[in-house]
Amino acid sequence: MAARQPARVDPIEPVRIKPHPAGCERLVAKLSAAADLAEEDKEALRALCSQVREFAGKRDIIGEGEKPENVHLMLEGWGARYKVVEDGSRQITAFLLPGDFCDVHVPILGEMDHGILALTAAKVALIAHDRITELPRKRPELGRALWWATLVDEAVLRSWIVNIGRREAAQRVAHLFCELHARMKLVGLVEDDQFDLPLTQEVIADALGLTPVHVNRTLQHLRADNLIVLKGGELTILDVEGLKRLAGFDDNYLHRGLLARE
Amino acid sequence: MAARQPARVDPIEPVRIKPHPAGCERLVAKLSAAADLAEEDKEALRALCSQVREFAGKRDIIGEGEKPENVHLMLEGWGARYKVVEDGSRQITAFLLPGDFCDVHVPILGEMDHGILALTAAKVALIAHDRITELPRKRPELGRALWWATLVDEAVLRSWIVNIGRREAAQRVAHLFCELHARMKLVGLVEDDQFDLPLTQEVIADALGLTPVHVNRTLQHLRADNLIVLKGGELTILDVEGLKRLAGFDDNYLHRGLLARE
DNA sequence: CGTTCCCTTGACACCGATCAACTCTGGTGG
DNA sequence: CCACCAGAGTTGATCGGTGTCAAGGGAACG
């Protein structure tokens, strides 16, 4: 929300107020965890973010069935992939954090088989298809890193299936929070096990295959057990180990590269 | 099951008894639906299937945590990706049909974050990593096609999340059957809306986030509504449109290429 | 001809959905 | 500055889809 104040520096949130390519650093951070990127690689990534577009919250970034001309990269804010079912209910299939691509598949698959929604106000980089497709040729290590990111996305999808298919509500919520904690950390947006979580209970419900009412009750359990504090769009994990234990969370599926291992 | 009878031809199941590269034709058929493959491309694919290994049913092809030396490609029989949860229950995250790769990701991600199980006796081609990775360089169209297959797999994962998260049991089963119908058709294993479905009710349950008992009752509903016949490991869809309507099935997520559209 | 899977059936319990009202908060405009 | 309003969170009562437990049946296989 706090936007480009050019010269003066806000001492409270120094990270947020870099000139606009700041969001692009999320991608750099993420991919650096997977591959050994040279400075030229990083520059090439930053160069992708020249064209930026802003979206208001609760608004489609890409609708189902569209054939976007550009690849979209989340720079700031949160997004979600979703699909609307016959009966009108909605299922979210992924949360998109800064550094995540929205639609690398479109150049090959042709059209979107799901929609992408801005959950908050968001900045998105628009990148021409061919700039992405030619990257691997020019910078093989980057190609590897992008490939890695795609495969991790796939692994996350699998873990969601497991989560929704075989865990009860409290564990589901806990698992989601653990995943988001790990992913936010990877892009440098976690401090003291605390991070922005601008999700309504309805959105959480749509991601976990639950109803808002039940998510509400479940959150109260987690709070009562002193596992989390969730207030004002900010999540604090009070007991990381306890939450992981409850969730049965094992971060192996995120495949953080050797460089990233703490 | 029926194996390489060299000279004589069995008139009942002529497809099955070609010399061993037969299974490899499934991959060729699948990829031909997505890209305009030259004969050389197809030959290159067939050349991948030189080394074949057989697995007994109900046996791991690859275990979670392993780092297989080769890429595995299903030639015959059915497989499943699965993950075992803390409480001991199992969730299947994908069915692997002939023509599907088991673990293209391993060269990049390093180790398996889930296991792969042979559901039936299966023949699997073992392919050296570098033979896969160099394919795109030598035959760009093949690279595109493989990329397409990966992205479709991802789309299928998303549709599973929707299915498990937002549909009731009967619709879930129906949707799964519609998907398998479409995928089996794509590799040429459907005749008259009938195909092998060697899945126990327990396996179906583990794929859909249900219990075997409930799958049993659900199947009885589908049978009572004259939508399907499922017997002896063979599924016949009596009313394709009706089943799709019940399931809310839209095959757009399978992204069949232009060539494949009937 | 027994053993082993797998399918089937019934009774019952429970998690989460549904419906409906109420509270709280932040934002807007008078 | 306060009244109002919309969106989000909260709560309670009740319903229903699935899970659980347990027993029995049927077909394939050695």
Detailed description of the structure:
The structure is a homodimer of 262-residue chains. With 262 residues, chain A is α+β, with helices and mostly antiparallel strands. Chain A contains 9 helices and 10 strands. Chain A has helices spanning 22-32, 39-48, 106-109, 129-138, 140-166, 169-186, 201-208, 212-224, 240-247, and strands at 52-55, 59-62, 70-76, 79-84, 90-96, 115-118, 122-128, 194-196, 228-231, 234-237. In chain A, the strands form 3 sheets. The first copy, chain A, has a 4-stranded antiparallel beta sheet with strand order 2-6-4-5. In chain A, strands 1-7-3 form a 3-stranded antiparallel beta sheet. A 3-stranded antiparallel beta sheet of chain A has the order 8-10-9. In chain A, β4 and β5 (90-96) form a beta hairpin. The first copy, chain A, is globular and about 50 Å long. The first copy, chain A, starts with 21 loop residues before the first helix and ends in a 15-residue tail after the last helix. In chain A, 45% of the residues are buried. Mean pLDDT of chain A is 90; it is low at 1-20. The A-B interface holds A 65, 81, 83, 85-87, 89-91, 93-94, 105, 108-111, 113-114, 144, 147-148, 150-155, 157-162, 164-167, 208-209, 248, 252-253, 255 and B 65, 81, 83, 85-87, 89-91, 93-94, 105, 108-111, 113-114, 144, 147-148, 150-155, 157-162, 164-167, 208-209, 248, 252-253, 255. The first copy, chain A, binds a DNA duplex (30 and 30 nucleotides) through residues 168-169, 200-202, 210-214, 216-217, 219-220.
